[in-house]
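Let us practice reading a record.
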Amino acid sequence: MRPTDLLKSGAEADWTAATDHPFTRALAEGTLPPEKMAGYLQQDFLFIDGFVRLLASAIARAPSLADSVPAAQFLAVVAGPENTYFLRSFDALGVSPDARPAPVTRAFQDLMAEARETGRYECMLAVLVVAEWSYLDWATPFSERAASLPFWHGEWITLHTGEGFAGVVAYLRDQLDRIWPGLSPDEQARAEALFHRAVALERDFFDAAWAGFGVAR
């Protein structure tokens, strides 16, 4: 079994809860109240700064140029089309792009910073793999519904499905899988702990979004 599969299996309960969640089902069915979608997007938008810094740090730690190029290309997507999607959605939903981070958002921001500050490639990858793989897992079953939904629902699904995004997830997993055997037991344990904490926070984030974050106008 691949190392990333083993890491996922060690957090199976939280993974399943995060990737088959009432929030994402309602989002894909188009029944999610606009207030809940707006609050969710405001909180998710707060991740971009920390995520960009984490991804850029991973690019700097990649073993070779060839290893760094796919991440650099993905960074351009996050800073370009994904960032633009958020701003268009805020405008359409009539809300501000500015919001205070909820406790679970702050916890995830702190986790990304912790992974970055280790200076360890495997620690950065552990969090990045969860962030992208979990979204591929929840969004893929709904990919054919995207075109029939309001764009702030449909494009969010489209951004996290398809060959291009699946390729990003495959690349991140492959990077972690390849370096895993060369890590010491302590290094593996540290990365595993970050992976499992990230999965638990993904579940907590969707739970909080389903309960409703509230909206900054």
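A brief commentary: The mean pLDDT is 97.
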